Amino acid sequence: MYNSKITGLGYYVPDNVVTNDDLSKVMETSDAWIQERTGIKERRHVVRGEETTTSMGVKAAKIAIERAGIDKDEVDFIIFATLSPDYYFPGPGVLVQRDLGIKTVGALDVRNQCSGFVYGISVADQYVKSGMYKNVLVVGSELHSHGLDMTTRGRGVSVIFGDGAGAAIISREEDPKKGILSSHLHSEGQHAEELSLIAPGMGKRWVTDIIEENDPEDESYFPYMNGQFVFKNAVVRFSEVIMEGLQKNNLTATDIDLLVPHQANLRISQFVQKKFGLSNDQVFNNIMKYGNTTAASIPIALTEAWEQGKVKEGDLIVLAAFGSGFTWGSVIIRW
C-alpha cells in the first residue's frame, strides 16, 4: 500500500472582474446588501464565446502538472468535477485529455457540485493508495455566468456565483504519515430539490418541452436555492465532517494549521471558524474576490494559500465542503 499526496497545484480565473456595483446596474441589489449576506465583493465571469469550463480546467491543469514536476504523459488518470460541463454529454474529463494531448488514459466525471473536488480527491487517493495509478489529475472547474438569471428575480442566487478552475496532481508518497491521511464522504438526497437546477432533465422537463411551452416565467432552467435551509444544514454538516476527520486521525481542532473550506458563503466559514476556535490565520477564505465557484472553490483557495506561503511541509491541512445533493465531505492532509 502506498500513501498519496498533492504534488502540484494550479488555478485559473477569467480576467473579467464583475463587482457588486456592476450587478446593481442590471438588478435591484447593492454592494452593502450582497456583502452583508455573503461576504462577496466581486467575482469573475468569462467573456462569452472565449472560454469554457474545459478551457479553464486545462489552464489550471497545465500549471498543476508543471508544479508537480512531471510530464503530461505521466498522468495516469483524470478526474474532472463540475456542475457546468461544456456539453450535456460527453463530460469534460475526455475533453481535458484531448486538449492536453495526454495519452488514452481513463477520464472520470464527478457530478457532486460544491463537494465535487473533495469527492474527486477521495477517488484519486484510493487509486494511488491501491497502487493502480501513480499520478492522478483532479480538476474542478465551473462556468456559472452563462446559466444565471441576471435579473432582480434571480438575485438571491446570481450574486453568489463566479467562474474559475483549480487543479491538483495526486501522486504516490512512501511515508504513510505524510500526504492524504483520510477522506470522509456523505449524502442526504431527501433534500435534493432545496439546491438544484431542475431542467433540462430527462425526468422532468427536457429541452423540447421548454421550447414548446416558451414560457417567459419559467424558472426551471435557472438554479434554485432555499438559502436559509441550505445555510442551516451547511453549518451542521461542515462541523460534523471536520470533526469526523479529526477523530479518525486522533487529532483535535488545535492541531489544524489551515482549514480550507468550500467558498459557499463567508458567513458559513466564519460560523465554522468560531465553532472550532480557529484564528483568522487558520482559515483561508477568498470568496470575497471570486464568489462561489462550486467545485473549483477549494482548489482555487488551496492553490492561493500555498502560493502565499500559508501551506508548509508538515502542516495539517483540512479541506471541507457542503453543497447540492445534499453532499458533503472532508479531507485530512499532512502536507
Structure description:
The chain is α/β, with parallel strands linked by helices and 335 residues long. α3 packs across α4 (92-100) and α8 packs parallel to α9 (266-276). The chain has 2 domains: 3-173, Thiolase/Chalcone synthase (Peroxisomal Thiolase, Chain A, domain 1, 3-Layer(aba) Sandwich); 179-334, Thiolase/Chalcone synthase (Peroxisomal Thiolase, Chain A, domain 1, 3-Layer(aba) Sandwich). The protein is globular and about 60 Å long. It has a 5-stranded mixed sheet, with helices on both faces. 33% of the residues lie in helices and 23% in strands.
Q: What is the C-level CATH assignment of the largest domain? A: Alpha Beta
Contiguous low-pLDDT stretches (5 residues minimum) are: none
- The whole-angstrom Rg is 19 Å
Shape: globular
Give the name of the CATH superfamily of the largest domain.
Thiolase/Chalcone synthase
Largest sheet: 5 strands, mixed
Distance between the termini: 19 Å
Quickly count the helices.
11
- Derived from helix and strand composition plus strand pairing, the structural class reads alpha/beta
Helix residue percentage: 25-40%
* Total number of domains: 2
CATH topology of the largest domain, what is it called?
Peroxisomal Thiolase, Chain A, domain 1
Give the CATH architecture of the largest domain: 3-Layer(aba) Sandwich
Strand content: 15-25%
| Helix and strand pattern | EEHHEHEHEHEHEEEHEHEHHHEE
Strand order of the largest sheet: 1-7-6-4-5
Strand elements, count: 13
Quote the average pLDDT.
95
